[in-house]
Specification:
Structural class: mainly alpha
Order of helices and strands: HHHHHHHHHHHHHHHHHHHH
Number of strands: 0
Number of helices: 20
Keywords: Annexin, Calcium, Calcium/phospholipid-binding, Repeat
GO biological process, one term: negative regulation of coagulation
InterPro entries: Annexin, Annexin_repeat, Annexin_repeat_CS, Annexin_sf, ANX5
GO molecular function: calcium ion binding; calcium-dependent phospholipid binding; phosphatidylserine binding
Helix content: over 70%
Distance between the termini: 23 Å
Family: Belongs to the annexin family.
Strand content: under 5%
């Protein structure tokens, strides 16, 4: 795991002791939410898995089931999310997005555009193991058209590596010819280039594109495409430029609507807490002139807010 996470392994970790603290917080009348959230938000994902095992061993009970029955609302959603092993969490979010009522395209787009190739391969394996069906097959059953094609390319986690100098200029010209230059858009060109090239390569292509087209590739995508395909292409472009920049923007969006989009807020805070939360915070401050911490403070409340601020890890 990257060291840019806000949540780091707890130094004097003792799974048995933590399991006892949690049991005590949940036993008897009333629940000590504070003790639960302070402990679990300050442990790494791997440590939480050990606590789960120690809890089962000591008390013969399923920790996640107990947490579910003792907690409620958004705090419960957040704490339960923290208890999933991170790869299984991504698989679970994808499955829920595909199999729920209507497809939650925002979730598919976010996860498939932002995860590394290795992460994507692991997620596909976990998905098959957990749900007995293939991620690609489920995506096919629930989406269509060019949008589906790009999702499937990304789901394979087979992007090329490095920069192919001889193709940078060619790719930029092809994108220009496929969009700005012709009547109607050649979506396949966009999908093949944006879906298969490495982030480093694409950053070079975007620079070359700007020189040819006189505008950013994002502008062209917004002009040329609509709906889910547009949203997915934009996410791929943003992630190629900066994954933490993409998440800074997404987490901002989740709190800007009338009423906070807590599902997205929870998913981002949980899934980035050990990957790149420090970078997300820095990008957030740079883009919006205020800290992520203060935005969370203004848009959430209670124990749920407290747990989110722990995951955020500090005020900038």
């Amino acid at each position: 795991m990257a060291t840019q996470g806000s949540v780091k392994p707890f130094v004097n970790f003792n799974a048995k002791h933590d399991a006892e603290v949690l049991r005590k917080a949940m036993k008897g009348i009333g629940t000590d939410e504070d003790a639960i959230l302070m402990l679990l938000a300050a442990r790494s994902n791997a440590q939480r898995q050990e606590i789960k095992a120690a809890y089962k061993k000591a008390f013969g009970k399923d920790l996640v089931k107990d947490l579910r029955s003792e907690l409620g609302g958004k705090l419960e959603d957040l704490i339960v999310a923290l208890m999933f092993p991170s790869t299984i969490y991504d698989a679970h979010e994808l499955h829920k997005a595909i199999k729920g009522v209507g497809t939650e395209d925002q979730v598919l787009i976010e996860i498939l555009a932002s995860r590394t190739c290795d992460e994507m391969k692991d997620i596909a394996k976990a998905y098959k193991k957990e749900y007995g069906s293939k991620l690609e097959k489920d995506i096919m059953g629930d989406t269509s058209g060019h949008y589906q094609r790009l999702l499937l390319i990304l789901a394979q986690g087979n992007k090329e590596e490095g920069v192919d100098e001889s193709r940078v200029e060619k790719d930029a010209k092809e994108l220009f010819a496929a969009g700005e230059e012709k009547f109607g858009t050649d979506e396949d060109k966009f999908i093949n280039i944006l879906g298969n090239r490495s982030a480093e390569h694409l950053r070079r292509v975007f620079d070359a594109y700007k020189k040819i087209a006189g505008c950013d590739i994002e502008e062209s995508i917004k002009d040329e495409c609509t709906g889910n395909l547009e949203a997915l292409l934009l996410a791929v472009v943003k992630c190629a430029k900066s994954v933490s920049g993409y998440f800074a923007e997404s987490v901002r969006e989740s709190m800007r609507r009338a009423g906070t989009d807590d599902e997205t807020l929870i998913r981002i805070m949980v899934s980035r807490s050990e990957r790149d939360m420090l970078d997300v915070r820095a990008m957030y401050k740079k883009k919006y002139g205020e800290s992520l911490y203060s935005t969370i403070q203004a848009n959430t409340e209670g124990d749920y807010q407290k747990a989110l601020l722990y995951l955020c890890g500090g005020n900038d």
